[in-house]
Amino acid sequence: MEAGVSNDRKGSPAAAAEEESVIMRKSTPPPFLVKTYKAVEDPATDDVISWNGDGTAFVVWQTAEFAKDVLPTLFKHCNFSSFVRQLNTYGFRKVATTRWEFCNNKFQKGEKEKLCEIRRRKAWTSNKQRVAEASEHHELDEDQRSSSSNSSSSEYNTLVDQNKRLKEENGALISELASMKNKCRELLDLVAKCGKKSSKEEEVDERPKLFGVRLEVEGERERKRKRGENNQEINETATFLLSQSCKMKVKEEKAIIRF
């Protein structure tokens, strides 16, 4: 009777559906493996992650860049330690001591159809595996700390170089401002001298008088014309000095801000 009940259960629609579901799961590779295989195969990321020389394992060449640029596009995190733990649960082994190279006999180049044969482990069964995982995590932490230290050192050197360059540019601007001030002072002195000379010429009027009235002498109109031209040159010089003074002020303000 019990045997009859057992046979009824096996032949029931629920049992058939469950069996079909199990078969489907076995024929479909886990998403984690599919995404990882895709990242390894992508030629655009070969400088970060790629196959080893014979295609029997893959290597994460740059862990920091992999965590920052590749992991977020595949999974909902950017934690390289979590990625390594996932590999361990699927039976991957770290096969090199000098780089992050992972191997699984059914995860190889050109054999994507074997991914469905890889199964996730339900629990750790030996202390050796726990010790190996702890060792890998410790090595990962050391690698990340070293990467972070190198990054900080590089940023510091960049800031020092930028500060040195800004100081040099500021010194050049200060020197240029001093030179412009000297030229402006010389031009102002020249304009002042020309103005005094013109005033004296206007004050001295040596034309002869007839019954108290100044007479127009030959060449007087020419002298007046030249005097007018001189005054125009003085005005133009003054305008030029004013514009140069404004430019100097702007440069000085920029130099102070940049410094």
Topology, pairings included?
Blueprint: H1 2-10, H2 13-27, H3 31-41, E1 49-51, E2 57-60, H4 63-74, H5 80-89, E3 93-94, E4 100-103, H6 127-203, E5 209-210, E6 213-214, H7 220-258
Antiparallel strand pairs: 1-2, 2-4, 3-4, 5-6
Helix pairs in contact: 5-6, 6-7
Region (Disordered): 1-22, 127-158
GO cellular component, one term: nucleus
Keywords: DNA-binding, Nucleus, Phosphoprotein, Stress response, Transcription, Transcription regulation
3D architecture notes:
Among the domains are: 31-117, Orthogonal Bundle (Arc Repressor Mutant, subunit A), CATH 1.10.10; 161-197. The chain contains 7 helices and 6 strands; from the N terminus they run αααββααββαββα. The chain has helices at 2-10, 13-27, 31-41, 63-74, 80-89, 127-203, 220-258; strands at residues 49-51, 57-60, 93-94, 100-103, 209-210, 213-214.
